[in-house]
From TrEMBL:
Native source species: Lachnellula occidentalis
Region (Disordered): 238-274
Protein name (record): Chitin-binding type-1 domain-containing protein
Keyword rRNA processing found: no
PANTHER family associated with the record: PROTEIN, PUTATIVE (AFU_ORTHOLOGUE AFUA_6G10930)-RELATED
Key words of the record: Chitin-binding, Disulfide bond, Signal
């Protein structure tokens, strides 16, 4: 009987140790997966206990030890594809995640990809993103944050020391389909007694997900309260949960080989298709509209941006939050509050006016993108 009780206790302990999720690649600071770690934290799957642990559970201080605990674990090139891997024992029905870079040891973070829904859904899941083509080279702190869908209202965060290397010659000039690194949003912070809380049972729709999004942004009712900054990061973010800009692609559910992280058995990939890395076009000279809405300067709509008054992009706001004038933009799911639905629709055109691919040889990519960015 005593032996059975011991086994049961061990089983419960093992379950508790694998209770949540953690990033395994790139190996985070103080992670058991990081061979540079001097004081491994075996509770990396635990959520942040509060504002005092934000960011990175406080482990960003290890970055000072550049040849030891804070040594870089991988080099990524601007404009190149990259990924991270999440492992663990309880996905809490997924949720929403963000990937971000910091060049000042965690004093500020810039979001480079948002994942709305299905993040993560299984252990060993890989998530793809693209390093912005104008990302500054040098030492950087890569952060993964996760807001679980089901369970206690929490935020999980792991950080890794990385290097942003030299860009390839093909990516030395910022393309007009890219968004400048300086124009990308800061990291979203909630659930640490900072005035806002995510709503259980919903996939958090980030108030400002940025230009690169996997999943569908724009849902309301996923956040309550007004988010204050935590240790200088995040806030203020209102509780509307509406999308204030950024592209959107369907959440990926198929498998694909990771581009850099080791393969994990049984893991599926949540990597975004090529279409997910769509960014805003050059700003227009539109003037503001009445109320809290302003004319879209990027061809994106929703949140505070409207397509009305922006004829260069199209008058309709599609269900995926892009301006246009095609039947796809103005048809099912068109957001009437952010444009004049039905005005100027043309069934003969299937391209999105805001998208510009300067290389004429990228026609195949154009077709792939246009299936998702409406």
């Amino acid at each position: 009987m005593q032996y059975t009780a011991i086994l049961a206790a061990l089983a419960l302990g093992s379950t508790g140790a694998m209770a949540h999720m953690e990033m395994s690649f790139p190996p985070p600071l103080r992670s058991k997966y990081n061979t540079n770690a001097k004081n491994a934290d075996y509770s990396m799957t635990s959520p942040l206990s509060g504002a005092a642990q934000f960011p990175c559970k406080g482990y960003q201080t290890d970055m000072a030890d550049t040849s030891g605990a804070g040594a870089s674990v991988i080099t990524w090139a601007p404009g190149a594809k990259a990924n991270f891997t999440v492992v663990g024992g309880a996905t809490h029905s997924g949720g929403s995640c963000q990937a971000a870079l910091s060049y000042d040891t965690g004093k500020s973070f810039t979001v480079i990809q948002s994942y709305i829904g299905n993040c993560p859904m299984t252990s060993g899941q890989n998530f793809d993103f693209t390093i912005p083509s104008d990302a500054k080279t040098g030492s950087a702190l890569f952060a993964w944050t996760w807001f679980n869908k089901v369970g206690n209202r929490e935020i999980y965060m792991n950080c890794a020391s990385v290097t942003i290397g030299a860009a390839s010659k093909k990516r030395t000039i910022l393309s007009e389909r890219d968004t400048a690194f300086s124009a990308r949003p800061g990291l979203f912070v909630a659930n640490v007694d900072n005035g806002c809380t995510t709503v259980e049972g919903t996939d958090l729709s980030f108030p400002d997900p940025g230009p690169d999004v996997t999943g569908t942004a724009g849902a309301t009712g996923t956040l309550t309260g007004t988010c204050a900054a935590v240790n200088g990061v995040g806030g203020p973010s209102v509780s509307t949960g509406t999308k204030s800009g950024g592209s959107s692609s369907p959440a990926a559910s198929g498998s694909s080989a990771p581009s850099a992280s080791p393969a994990a058995s049984g893991g599926s990939s949540a990597s975004a298709p090529v279409a997910s890395s769509v960014a805003s076009a050059p700003a227009s000279s539109g003037t503001g509209t009445s109320g809290s809405l302003s004319v879209s300067s990027s061809g994106q709509c929703g949140g505070s941006q409207t397509c009305a008054g922006a004829p260069q992009f199209g008058a309709c706001c599609s269900k995926y939050s892009f301006c246009g004038d095609t039947a796809e933009h103005c048809g099912d799911g068109c957001q009437a509050g952010f444009g004049k639905c039905g005005s100027g629709a043309s069934s003969n055109s299937t391209t999105v006016k805001v998208r510009h691919l300067p290389n004429p040889n990228l026609g195949f990519l154009r077709g792939r993108r246009n299936r998702h960015v409406l």
